[in-house]
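Severity: low
Component: inverse-folding endpoint
Summary: output formatting inconsistent between runs
Steps to reproduce: submit the following structure tokens with default settings.
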């Protein structure tokens, strides 16, 4: 018997639940551990073999044919601080339910699809406690070395390896070889609701350049130090923050999104001028050309800021994802599934990054969106309707069935072009 999706969604949302109706399940925290344990049991109860890999990805395999390759479906159960309960988690649960439906249908009919089916909760998609984001899928797709991921520390100095070990979440499983990947997610923006569309077939993704930057100044007394002698790192940082926002003035409206999203201040003491500020600059646009231009403009502005505030701005690391279209055959599969179910649908682009953004560079990948009411996300007020969640699940069930039957095999043959 198929499980009741909404009942499972309500149960899942109790792990790390916040007073404001959201969840707080940052990667490898107790709440993340609890929801992972619950999810692993759900998969095991439906005949999946459940494992964890070296970077904490949690996955279940269901083999119709021993030795046959797999198709994989999933998203992430971790969240931002004080976040919504739909981001990622909806997609993980929908992947499991869709897979279970397809498996049950094959068993009832006495048939087997071309591919075995696996479901994954990617570790640390959000990248808030441990940077960068999309960590688990980044390691599996070879974009991030495992050792680098495991050695990454949170702001308190705890490494990913230590945090995973505390939960017993570092395993020796290996994700099976996959032929295709599918993910369903909330849109996290307002465009689908505004257009009155229930199902989004994601055809392209924005690119992102993220830079970890350190503003170096010199510590001093806020009262006694002469203004002319100061090298105030926080003042330099303030100028950088406004310069990042000012970049949008050089581009057509809403074609460049810029943010300084994180700030650490040393020593962060009332009577002391800051000696160092560490910040995260996040630039997003449709093409890397636009981001290169924004970055060049920013470096010019920063040179002026350094001179004016007598600080030094160091770019210590970057993380980049480039735009690439999603497999056309996968987009058409989603459109067809929605049309067959009598659901409104449209081609959309994703401005946010997803694990699918990583995996699509490896194998043909399908990404499906359902609407986010008022486009609110990374916020406890994030909301998608039950009707849209269930419609998405129905579409995604067809995506799972289609990929398991080899719907993207031709796209895979053409890959690499
Ligand atoms: Zn997400």
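Observed output (run 2 of 3):
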């Amino acid at each position: 018997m198929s499980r009741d999706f909404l009942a499972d969604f309500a149960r899942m949302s109790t792990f790390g639940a916040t007073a404001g109706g959201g969840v707080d399940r940052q990667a490898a925290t107790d709440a993340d551990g609890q929801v992972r344990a619950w999810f692993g049991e759900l998969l095991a109860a439906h005949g999946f073999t459940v494992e964890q890999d070296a970077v904490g990805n949690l996955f279940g395999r269901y083999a119709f044919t021993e030795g046959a390759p797999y198709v994989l479906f999933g998203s992430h159960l971790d969240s931002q601080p004080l976040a919504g309960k739909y981001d990622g988690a909806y997609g993980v649960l929908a992947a499991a339910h869709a897979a279970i439906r397809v498996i049950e249908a094959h068993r009832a009919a006495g048939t087997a699809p071309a591919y075995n089916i696996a479901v994954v909760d990617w570790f640390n998609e959000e990248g808030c406690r441990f940077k960068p984001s999309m960590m688990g899928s980044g390691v599996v797709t070879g974009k991030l070395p495992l050792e680098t991921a495991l050695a990454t520390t949170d702001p308190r100095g705890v490494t990913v390896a230590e945090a995973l070990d505390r939960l017993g979440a570092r395993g020796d499983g290996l994700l099976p070889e996959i032929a295709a990947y599918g993910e369903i997610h909330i849109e996290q923006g307002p465009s689908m609701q505004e257009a009155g569309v229930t199902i989004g077939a994601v055809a392209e993704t924005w690119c992102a350049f993220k830079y970890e930057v350190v503003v170096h100044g010199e510590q001093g007394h806020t009262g006694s130090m002469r203004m002319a002698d100061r090298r105030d790192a926080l003042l330099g940082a303030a100028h950088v923050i406004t310069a990042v926002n000012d970049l949008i003035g050089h581009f057509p409206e809403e074609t460049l999104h810029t943010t300084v999203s994180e700030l650490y201040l040393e020593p962060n003491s009332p009577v002391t001028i800051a000696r160092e500020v560490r910040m995260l600059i996040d630039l997003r646009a449709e093409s890397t050309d636009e981001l290169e231009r924004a970055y060049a403009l920013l470096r010019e502005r920063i040179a002026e800021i350094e001179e004016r505030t007598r600080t030094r701005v160091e770019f210590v690391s970057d993380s980049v994802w480039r735009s690439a279209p999603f497999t056309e055959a996968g987009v058409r599969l989603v459109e067809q599934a929605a049309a067959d179910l009598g659901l409104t649908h449209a081609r959309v682009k994703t401005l946010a990054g997803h694990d699918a953004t990583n995996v699509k560079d490896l194998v043909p990948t399908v990404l499906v969106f359902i609407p986010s009411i008022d486009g609110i996300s990374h916020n406890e007020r994030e909301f998608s309707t039950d009707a849209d969640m269930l419609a998405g699940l129905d579409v995604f069930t067809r995506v799972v069935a289609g990929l398991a039957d080899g719907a993207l095999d031709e796209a895979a043959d053409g890959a690499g072009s």
